[in-house]
Amino acid sequence: MILRGGLFIHVLHQPEVILQPDSRMYVSLSQGLLENGTLSYPEAPQTPSPDRTPGYPAFLAAILWTFGGSLLAVVFIQVLVDSLSCALVYKLGERLWEGNGFLSGILASLNLGMITYSHFVLNDSLFLFVFLMSLIGLLGYLREPKWNRSALLGLVLGVASMIRPVITYLPLVLIPLLVVAVLTKHHERFLLAAGKALMVGIVFVICLAPWMMRNHSHYGRWSLTAQAGEHLLQYIVPFTWQYSKGIPFIEGMKQTSDAFKEKAAQANLDLKKTSPFEVSDLQVRMAMDYLRDEPKAALAKAWFFGMMKNLFAPSIIDFSYLLRIERPHFFYTEGRTTLERAWNFLKGMKGWFGWAVIASMVLLGASRVFQVWGLIHLFRRKPWECLFLVVIVGYFLMVSGPVGYAKYRLPFEPILIVFLAVGLRDLVLRLRRKSSQEVRA
Fold first, then answer.
1. Residues 404, 396 contacting (CB under 8 angstroms)
2. Distance of alpha carbon 207 from alpha carbon 65, whole angstroms
3. What is d(CA 296, CA 140) in angstroms, rounded to the nearest whole number?
């Protein structure tokens, strides 16, 4: 709280830094919720918006209503929430290995990504807090699989999905593994193990059902949002073109946007009046046509380098927004390969901040080594828990795909923090043993 509070005090003098490109959309939806009683934009009260799930706009609306529309109050509450997330990371570390919680919590309090994103009007910190609850609930379930824990796990996952639907398909991955884990670890009967695992999915679907019914009622679609097309056409395709055609991301995004407008005009589609889901459908079809034409090697390369960016992109880049540091933007940096763009990006930075970025990347690389060792060390004690955590990390890496960035690492950052704590603790214990042996010798 002290670390985050210090940054918050700095932000008070330049409040414009808390707004990112998506922030205004969330604020507008929350204002529509306050004015119209439904998730819609203030200028279109009769048109319920399927652009986002209601979790974060409702969170914003509650704070704006309580504090007279103050966005700084939103950031302050998020600072409190993120500080509590550090306590949950402590709990996560302690659940995995008794005595490892304190170091895990300290590392979380120092984590630059968690500190940074709690100061933006975005859903990241709220989602992380709720998702951390689901991770702790998952470990509790693996330790003692009870019906009430199944229901609680499904509930927390459902709430997290209503904040950020990126985990909508995660239960499909977890449920079969939960069955196998309970059968193997606790030797329960198959029907009992399967029933408890299915309970997670049933409660999860119950949480999502009202919002899906709302969208079906207004638009005839059983979907949480109408964002699939934009994500595929405006992000996945341009990022893939970077590796297959050497087209810079921003240029690729402009090409797909122009092609979409032309396609919509040919189909006599009025983008302002057409259903958002119909617009998304057209974008999906176009994106899939583009991706089918891409060599499989280019797709694999795009996903691989996207995952590497996700794991190794330094959070200090986004931290610079809060300090208003002038620097180049990676998306606009020229270069035919990721490494070439990264090198040109680093060369474009001046003064101490360039050295700070290099230092943070070195520190990040070293931490990944300790995290791998921590994972190996922890796997020997709790293989099933580690398997689930690795699967969750892999899920987020695959879902983010080519759109690799430090921001998209935040949901599984606590898992990496715990692995790091285990690796560092083991190193310290080994050094102490070696030192005591030398003293006795």
1. no
2. 25
3. 40
- C-alpha span between 33 and 42 (Å, rounded): 8
Distance CA 326, CA 381 (A): 47
Strands (E), 284-439: none
Q: How many angstroms separate the CA atoms of 118 and 17, rounded?
A: 12
- CA atoms of 240 and 227, how far apart (whole Å): 19
Phi/psi at 48 (5° precision): -60, 135
Q: Which residue has the tokens 């974008």?
A: 283
Residue 342 in this model has a pLDDT that exceeds 70: no
What is the dihedral sign for C-alpha 210, 212, 214, 217? negative
287 pLDDT above the threshold of 80: yes
Would you state the pLDDT for residue 346? Answer: 67
User: Per-residue confidence at 435, pLDDT binned at 50, 70, 90?
Assistant: confident
> How far is residue 124's CA from residue 17's CA, in Å, rounded to a whole number?
16
Burial class (CB within 10 angstroms; exposed 0-12, middle 13-18, buried 19+) of 17: middle
The pTM for the full model equals 0.93
Whole-number pLDDT of residue 338: 62
Neighbours of 221 (CB within 10 A): 19
State the number of CA atoms in the 13 A half-sphere of 394 facing the CB.
Answer: 8
Q: What's the pLDDT tens digit per position in 408-433?
A: 999 999 999 999 999 999 888 888 88
The C-alpha atoms of residue 49 and residue 47 are separated, in whole angstroms, by: 6
What is the residue whose two structure tokens read 């207004």?
218
CA distances from 386 to 126, 390, 418 (A): 25, 6, 11
For 321-360, b where at least 16 C-beta lie within 10 A, e where not — what string? bbeebebeebeebebeebeebbeebbeebeeebeebbeeb
Q: Residue 111, SS3?
A: coil
Kindly report the number of other CB atoms within 10 A of residue 160's CB atom: 27
Cβ–Cβ under 8 Å, residues 420 and 374: yes
CA atoms of 206 and 53, how far apart (whole Å): 15
Start-to-end CA distance of the chain, whole Å, equals 45
SS3 at position 40: strand
Dihedral angle computed from the Cα positions of residues 145, 150, 153 and 155, in that order, rounded to the nearest 10 degrees: -170
